Amino acid sequence: MSDVSFKLFDSILKTLSDNYGKELSILEIAKKVYPDYYYGKKDFPYDIQNINDQHSTDIINSLNFLDSNGYINLNFPLQKASINAKGLMKIRTEGFQKEYNRRFWNTILQRWTWIILPIAGAVTAICAIINVCRCGS
Question: Bridge partners of 25?
């Protein structure tokens, strides 16, 4: 998944959490996530199978992902979505973007630790041997 997907997931969850306890239409969510693109539009493409623009496809795919992982409740026949407790906890604690960034940097630090630690150990051992040899002479 890309960085953009995580931002979109967080944006959708944030929109739904701001309206906790309410069902929002997919168009209302889309207008908050992509305000410039959906400005003035009166309805969302109802034929989900034949969506021809990227923004609508991204919204539908993101809603499907969030629903299938239990973060939101999606009602496709009515084209409405609401956030549940798991989604509310996700966006209030760290969200997808922060979790991705945290894991990314942890991986980098872990790899550097694996490289630097043996080198530091070897340098320390060499210095100890040199010090013992100097003191013994």
Answer: 80
38 vs 69: CA distance, rounded Å: 26
Measured between alpha carbons, how far is 103 from 134 in angstroms, rounded to an integer?
46
Q: What is the DSSP-derived secondary structure letter of residue 9?
A: H
Cβ contacts of 16 within 8 Å, gap of 6 or more: 24, 29, 72, 81, 82, 83, 87
Q: Find residue 72's DSSP bridge partners.
A: 83
pTM over 0.70: no
In whole numbers, what is the pLDDT of the chain averaged over residues?
Answer: 82
- Write the CA distances from 137 to 71, 124, 133, integer angstroms: 70, 20, 6
Q: Which of 79, 72, 94 is nearest to 17 (CA)?
A: 72
Query: What DSSP character marks residue 71?
Result: S
Instruction: Give the burial class of 83: count Cβ atoms within 10 A of its Cβ; 0-12 exposed, 13-18 middle, 19 or more buried.
Output: buried
- Calculate the CA 28 to chain-centre distance: 21
pLDDT digits (tens, 9 = 90+) for 19-51: 898 999 888 888 888 877 766 665 655 555 555
- pLDDT tens figures, 2-12: 566 888 899 99
